[in-house]
Amino acid sequence: MDKLIIEGGSPLYGTVSISGAKNAALPLLAATLLAPGWHTLHNVPDLRDTRTMLKLLEILGARWERSGQTIRINTDQLTGVEAPYDLVKTMRASVLVLGPLLSRSGFARVSLPGGCAIGARPINYHLKGFEKLGVATRLEQGYVEASVTGRLQGGTVYFDTPSVTGTENVLMAAVISEGTTIIKNAAKEPEVGNLIDMLTAMGGAIEGKDTDRLTVHGVGRLQATESVIIPDRIETGTYLIAVAATGGTVTITGCNPAHLPALSEKLALCGVKIEAAENSMTVSCPEINGKNRCSLHSIDITTLPFPGFPTDLQAQFMALMVQGDGVSIIHETIFENRFMHVAELKRMGADITIEGSRAVVRGIGRDKLCGAPVMATDLRASASLVIAGLSASGTTEISRIYHLERGYENMVEKLQGLGAKIRKVRE
Ligand code: EPZ
After folding, report:
1. Distances (CA, A) of 101 to 13, 56, 83, 146, 225
2. Closest residue (by CA) to atom 6 of ligand 1?
3. Of all atoms in ligand 1, which is nearest to the CA of residue 26?
4. Which of 113, 307, 382, 387 is the most exposed place for a label (fewest CB within 10 A)?
């Protein structure tokens, strides 16, 4: 397996461009199952997870070709309706084929994803939503079988908590149906909006985009279309935090500042300077006593559904608060086990105590983290360790970096372009 070697301590300077959003590419690729013909998707990042989704679509009968960041995909022939366990266990977002397969063929058999490092991650809200649309579901040998006789019927779906992929799955099931579906307490993440734009361009009739109440007027059929994946706001946030952690000045291009309201606010409170333009952000640490690294004011965060602070940036922000000037309380409200990075950060000298769903981070100030061999446990924890390694003195070795490669396109090259001393070696 590969690992990363980082010589920390140097500020980041220059320009970095943001790739398409992983968490938009996955539902939009699944949505191509809703209509036969050639679909075109632009700005599709080349990641472990998007490659997994394309493999799943191939298993279901799709053909595709990639030209740069554009994917053309043909779903004329659907030869399968099953998402196998050995694939779903590597990427739980495979469950996103349930909704489109139900709409397109009235049947789907998808392996239950099982838990992952950050939590149990059930899909009960997805299944309850489908049942409101007339779908019969049953669990059998670790698979969920979903079927509907005739057309899906409109209904009212209420999410106990705003589930992102749950909302996306129900949208893709309801878009081709008889009647009207109301989705209450829907997720408002920008990636859901990107999917709504694609479904609308395909001929769907959906009202309420970017709100927690969606109205879907079922249509008889959809047609293939051309869509653009939005920029990855979590990748953007990861680089913003990395610069705040190491110091320096970086312009991030091809991003959407409006998708990061909470992080921008929190970084400003830490003392980090951010200037936002239409599709770029410049982040810098104002000069302090001759060294280009601002002192970091420790602040509290609570992860919440959009537009609250994203849970997918919690681990990265913790790597920053480790270097703060006081105490930061980090409250994780979305997932029950998303502190796997804490033990690894402590190996580098961080002072963190976990109390239930809260982590108490006692800042040790700038230039106190020490490089060490650490292990990645999940996608965003990996990013947290990269940020800590870039900030630490000495050498940090990060193993199991396949986690990182699920969601960050060319991260090593992008960081090298900013002056980071980071390289990938085969273990
Ligand atoms: C999406 O996961 C993202 N993944 C996650 O990003 C992200 O962390 C999460 O939303 C929250 O923003 C994709 O979009 C592919 P949820 P999802 O359903 O949809 C509970 C990353 O790092 N829940 O919004 O699976 C669930 O356990 C990944 O890129 C149920 O109980 O998350 C969690 O506590 C990690 N039953 C909460 O709801 C359900 O049926 C929110 O989960 C569904 C969810």
Report:
1. 46, 12, 10, 9, 18
2. 312
3. 15
4. 307
Taking CA atoms only, the protein residue closest to ligand 1 atom 31 is: 122
Residue with tokens 């191939």: 58
The helix/strand/coil state of 372 is coil
Given the residues 116, 285, 294, 370, select the one marked as catalytic.
116
User: In what side-by-side order are the strands of the sheet with 2-7?
Assistant: 373-375, 395-399, 2-7, 421-426
- Dist. CA 244–CA 64, nearest whole Å: 40
Span 141-166, pLDDT tens digits: 999 999 999 999 999 999 999 999 99
pTM: 0.97
Distance CA(6)–CA(413), nearest Å, equals 13
CA 139 to ligand 1 center in whole angstroms:
21
Q: Is 156 in the pocket of ligand 1 (CB under 6 A)?
A: no
Work out the number of other CB atoms within 10 angstroms of the CB of residue 354: 13
- Give the pLDDT mean for 240-269: 97
335 pocket-lining for ligand 1 (C-beta < 6 Å): yes
CA of 207 to the centre of ligand 1 (A): 23
Element (H, E) at 321: helix 314-321
**Residue of minimum CA distance from atom 27 in ligand 1:** 121
Active site residue 270: no
